[in-house]
Amino acid sequence: MRCLLFPISLIIRSGCQIKKFFYNMEIFTPNKALFPVISIGNISFGGSEKTPLAMNLLSFLLKHGLKPALITRGYKGKWEKSGGILSDGENIYGSWEESGDEPFMVAQRIPQAGIFIGKNRSFSCEKAKHLGFDAGVLDDGFQHRRLYRDLDIVLYDPSEKIALREPVSSLKRAHIIFVKKKLDTKNKEKIRERFHQASVLEYSVISKGFYRLKDKTRVPAEYLKGKRILVFCGIARPERFFLLLEAEGIKPHFFLKFSDHHPYSPPSLKKIAEKSQKLHAEALITTEKDAVKIYDSQDFLKIPVYYQKADLEVEEKFYKKILTFLKIQG
What is the C-alpha to C-alpha distance for residues 287 and 260, in angstroms, rounded to an integer? Predict the structure, then answer.
């Protein structure tokens, strides 16, 4: 799949280079929002933990007295072109079909945050400011040059060399570059030397536990160990989900992989049900992102469904930098 994306990558990279020229020459100028905007992005195609980092940051900003809003395109949602307000920090006004799966997941996990959907991110910032929000977290914003960002955070995996949306040199625009903690020291030093303008920080993906889909109650990992389990998901990098399950001691008997942002139509649900019956599965496990799309359809199964929450563990330096940037006392 990564090789198949290479021709698309070349086209998109060329477009980014042209766009970069116009912005560098100030032929195009970005729109500045009326509050600070922190962008979270990457230079590869999907699956780089942007959404967990966005949730981590939104929670941190709320903890320090701010009223943050997630500004997101709402990929594959009905509001992607027209725009919409999924959450005003008190109420959820739409469905995952309207907002897209990831924004809806954020709205459920962090109900105090605003969630503004649409391709026109500048307009979303205007709406957020009008409703009293005082900071914007721009989701997947590194390539969205139309909106000025006060802080650019990029998650970077140096092993990704084929399916890139921008050349690696574009990281010179970043203020913070996140790499995985397990990356070897030599590679980290190379990144620090080449992109000395940025703070190079480390992160790890961690499990936040398992939850029963039916009532969203938490269950211990021990409860699931030893059961006949069918795992299914529709995310960009399913192998990362499987590794996270493995780290919790969960060994599935079978897994079904669907495409990223898979909508789980009746044929897909039937396929899962039939496979679970054939395997005599005792439980099903999926991701939190997938869970929001099957909550109303869970009765199609006769066995319990669980989902795993994931979060990022980041260096304390990151939070100190955010506080300094926003001029907030810790």
Answer: 12
H or E segment to which residue 239 belongs: helix 238-247
277 Cβ partners below 8 Å, 6+ apart?
none
**pLDDT one-digit tens code per residue, 273-328:** 999 999 999 999 999 999 999 998 877 778 999 999 999 999 999 999 999 999 87
Q: Please list, in sequence order, all residues whose beta carbon lies within 8 angstroms of the beta carbon of residue 124, skipping any fewer than 6 positions away.
A: 69, 71, 72, 83, 116, 117, 118
C-beta of residue 194 within 8 angstroms of C-beta of residue 285: no
Distance in angstroms (rounded) separating the CA atoms of residues 141 and 148: 10
Over residues 8-33, the pLDDT tens digits come to 555 565 666 666 655 666 666 889 99
> Which residues are bridge partners to 219 per DSSP?
210
Residues whose CB falls within 8 Å of the CB of residue 148, separated by 6 or more in sequence, listed in order: 30, 31, 32, 33, 37
For the four alpha carbons of 133, 136, 140 and 141, in that order, the dihedral sign comes to positive
What domains are defined for the chain?
6-205+313-326 (3.40.50.300), 207-310 (3.40.50)
Position 1: which residue type?
Answer: M
